[in-house]
Design goal:
The protein is α/β, with parallel strands linked by helices. Helices cover 50% and strands 11% of the residues. The strands form two sheets. It has a four-stranded parallel sheet with strand order 3-4-5-6, with helices on both faces. Strands 1-2 form a two-stranded parallel sheet. The longest helix has 29 residues. The relative contact order is 0.12.
Length: 228
């Protein structure tokens, strides 16, 4: 079951492309800032597929500003989507997984769930919250057949990060390529963006039997950011 906002045609192309691999793929446009819609998303997934076996919590938005200039409505929106949505999805899906005695909950946190950066107060608070939430769920799921773990990427070249790079390039009157390199160099010894496919690979690992004894863990892919 896919979820997310975007162009309807692009979403349908993604759904159809995935379906070509031979699996049934559906889409639900639940607004992850609305708990009732999240519960409905889980219920419809259960109805469509017979179970909710693997839950990947990946919704996120960003806003950058000093704390004194940070709009309260942006704080509320980021906490709702980046943190509270994960709680509500787990709250709805976990009983189904426990009843089946098998499940995998994979929370996409961030390096910012482990360390902080200026001007990202809501994002850092939310991602630290995701790491804490993951630990608690992992503890409560011990010996249930359900695991809960987090992935903490560094810079991943997503549309969200691309906007930050382009804003930096415009502000400093430099090329987008230079702005991207500078962004990496500020934090990471290894000046490479993590690829979305690499995060997907970590999610596949956490969903596998190899990771069945991992609970409340954080897998880091950050080019050495937190090794310093």
């Amino acid at each position: 079951m896919l979820n997310g906002f975007g162009d309807a045609a692009a979403i349908e192309k993604l759904r159809a492309d995935l379906a070509k691999a031979g699996v049934e793929v559906a889409y639900n446009g639940a607004d992850m800032s609305r708990p009732a819609q999240i519960a409905e998303l889980i219920a419809k997934t259960q109805a469509a597929f017979g179970s909710v076996d693997i839950l990947v919590n990946n919704a996120g938005i960003q806003h950058v500003a000093p704390i004194e200039d940070f709009p309260a409505e942006k704080w509320d929106a980021i906490i709702a989507i980046n943190l509270s949505a994960t709680f509500h999805a787990i709250h709805a899906a976990l009983p189904l997984m426990k009843a089946k005695k098998w499940g995998r909950i994979i929370n996409i946190a961030s390096t910012h769930g482990l360390v902080a950066s200026a001007h990202k107060v809501a994002y850092v608070a939310a991602k630290h919250g995701i790491v804490g939430l993951t630990k608690v769920v992992g503890m409560e799921c011990a010996d249930s057949g359900v695991t809960c773990n987090a992935i903490c990427p560094g810079w991943v070249l997503t549309p969200l990060v691309q906007k930050q790079i382009e804003a930096r390039a415009n502000a400093q009157n430099i090329t987008v390529e230079k702005a991207g390199y500078d962004l990496l160099a500020e934090k990471q010894p290894q000046h490479q963006f993590t690829k979305p496919e690499q995060i997907a690979g970590l999610a596949l690992f956490l969903a596998s039997d190899t990771a069945s004894n991992m609970q409340g863990a954080q897998l880091v892919s950050d080019g050495g950011w937190t090794a310093q």
